Amino acid sequence: MRRQVLIADDHPLIRYGLRCLLRDCDDIGIGGEASDGHETLRMVRGPQQWDLLVMDLSMPGRNGLELIKLVKAAQPRLPVLVFSEFLENLYAVRAIRAGASGYLSKKAGADDVLLAMRRIAAGSVFFSERVTELLATHPGRDAQELPHTRLTDREYGIFSRIVNGARLTDIADELSLSVKTVSTHKSNILEKMTLGGQVELVRYAIEHKLLDAAG
């Protein structure tokens, strides 16, 4: 029986590429597509049973780590593969802790993408060598934590966007928040990380290799 994959990505070219990748596969195929977080949730909560959700982290509407948690709350047995433009060191550990069964950068080769889909749809997990290394070295709750690991998932998402040059208004639009709320989050981030301002945030991100170099 051919396993059914739901693809959630706001870029038509990515969805087209994944359709082409699976077009001739007898064991796994794309059964549906979503272009934003709200549509993804609607399809996950709908009557059709999916064997795998392949999702981007950055989409209009509900997105990122919050979307993974909402998907798992609605369908705990639905495995999730994050297929993201963000490099592994930025979000992989947090995505897996949110409920994802695997994480791949969009720079991954076609063979790795297909292998990850098949493994996760079959009920296993898929971690690249880099993700395995990150999981092994990521500080536990009782370890001496780096300042950015103290941030909540929402705060980390805003931190990541700020250090990669996004304006507060753009972040507010993307996350469907008010500018005031984003500004409050920024203040909380600076306080938790004991940093003096945006320049220090960027410097910290550079020192700890947390800038998005995927583009």
From TrEMBL:
Entries under Pfam families matching the protein: GerE, Response_reg
TM region(s), chain numbering: none
Stretches assigned to the HTH luxR-type domain: 142-209
Modified residues annotated as 4-aspartylphosphate in this record: 56
Cell division is among the record's keywords: no
InterPro entries associated with the record: CheY-like_superfamily, NreC/VraR/RcsB-like_REC, Sig_transdc_resp-reg_C-effctor, Sig_transdc_resp-reg_receiver, Tscrpt_reg_LuxR_C, WalR-like
Domain of life of the source: Bacteria
Signal peptide positions (record): none
Response regulatory domain sequence ranges: 4-121
Stored Gene3D superfamilies: 3.40.50.2300
Record's keyword terms, sorted: DNA-binding, Phosphoprotein, Transcription, Transcription regulation
Coiled coil: none
Name by which UniProt lists this protein: Response regulator
